[in-house]
């Protein structure tokens, strides 16, 4: 099944539409299209942030919505549709990062030396040094640390929501966030030379 998903265009519906959620769970194809239209930009932005502003974002977005479509019957409405899609996005990004790590290890083993990583073209045009430093520091964080930083600061989620998305308690999410902040602060002080 091929589903074409673009990462542009405005949301066509209100994201809190419970009848949409019911129709989506019932596998209504029109509802699926509306869910994609309403959430694709948010999923893309989250994936981009979780992958450290690199990676095949469009592939991840498509994978998220294909997974959501195949698992629509498992959505029980205990959380919002966005929270459920966020959890799927987290899992898809984790899988992508694991695959990339395996490919890197294989290429190192085959080539005997690491291959260079060129930043995306749009990142080269960014003038603001502070933004670049913060991006570098967030991208350098390990997956679990990057997840809580992105969800808290960039997605503006509360610790309880983060815990729900990650399948952990709100208190544990707070602890992870505290530790991740320390690591981010250390990374930024290294980048700034302070």
Mean pLDDT, as a whole number?
A: 77
Structure annotation, total helices = 9
Major sheet details: none
How would you classify the quaternary structure? single chain
- CATH class wording of the largest domain: Mainly Alpha
Structural class of the secondary elements? mainly alpha
| Terminal CA distance | 52 Å
Total domain modules: 2
Which term fits the overall shape?
globular
Output the helix-strand order. Answer: HHHHHHHHH
Rg computed from alpha carbons, rounded to a whole number of angstroms: 18 Å
What amount of the residues lies in strands?
Answer: under 5%
The proportion of residues forming helix, as a percent range, comes to 55-70%
In total, the number of strands is 0
Low-confidence stretches: 1-16, 110-116, 121-127
What features would you describe in this structure?
With 194 residues, the chain is an all-alpha fold. The chain folds into 2 domains: 1-117, Orthogonal Bundle (Rna Polymerase Sigma Factor, Chain: A), CATH 1.10.1740.10; 126-194, Arc Repressor Mutant, subunit A (Orthogonal Bundle). It has helices at residues 18-25, 29-50, 57-70, 81-111, 121-124, 129-140, 143-154, 159-166, 170-192. Helix 6 (129-140) packs across helix 9 (170-192) and helix 8 (159-166) crosses helix 9. The chain is globular, with a radius of gyration of 18 Å. The model is unreliable at 1-16, 110-116 and 121-127 (pLDDT under 50).
